[in-house]
Amino acid sequence: MKFKILALAIVAVLMVLVAGCDVEVTDRLYGVQGYALDITTSAAASTSLSGAEITLTNLDDNSTVTATVSGNGTYSIVARLVPGRYRLTGSKSGWTFIPQEYYSGLEDDRVDMLAFPEADPTTLTIAMAWDNAYYDIDLVATYGPANEVSDITLGGASARGQVYYGKTDSDPESVADGYVITLERDVELMDGYNVPRVEMMSIVSNLNDYPTTELDASREQIRVFANAYSYGTPANFDPGDTGLAEGGLTGALAEGKPSANVTMFVMLGNEHFGTWYGPIETLETTLHMVTIDLYMDGLNKMAKVMSAGNYGLDTFRSAQ
Length: 320
Description:
Strand order of the largest sheet: 11-10-14-17-18-19
Structural class: mainly beta
Low-confidence stretches: 1-25, 310-320
Strand content: 35-45%
Mean pLDDT: 77
């Protein structure tokens, strides 16, 4: 009997220890915070998003934690979270938030929530964010017929039209028959470290039809790039000195060049089309990330969004 009592006591102690270890390993206090940002402006924060709700959702069990955006345009969520994958979403009447993923226990706790005024269902919104505040990265689009193959040549001659820093095309006749591309947010290195590293471009259709059908080689095609412009600090900013930007977009630590950690988001109207992550350790300065085909399918305008270099059945998504 004493042996049974002793055995039961040992089992009980072990259960307590296991339970204690389980709580220590899988459950701790984490915080995630950042700006709620109107990406149609170049401001550091957006007071117009005050009162918006930011929700953190555990993608395994769908449990949620919610915080409210403060009057200075920031939010903060502190909760006891199981390490894993979470999704951050936002909501406020009249606004669309781009969903973000957050890995509790694995990543920096800074996640800026990107938002823009609710858009027409046919408007494409492209946002590019990067982590390294020492880089000035530019969001660039080239446009023209799909059979024009010339690469991006910033500031130089190119068969394809371009939209990038200091060059915004907003005249439908000068861009293409059926859409207008506008660079709405351009962040420069000299803006300072407190400005979230996010740039945004909108592609708006007008009353004309897109020029051709999907299989026509002269259909309109927009190619979206991330381009490393400069590296440095606001105090010594020199637009003519690319410095670490040569190969620094994707970086290579062996070469002493940290990656900028680029992420690109595509929205159609208020719908999330997809998120693309730039590679690292590949020493690239200019990276073609997304291709968009615009064409007519019967009476419907279509936007086919693909990862760069993918065709046919590799299409990421198509929608009206």
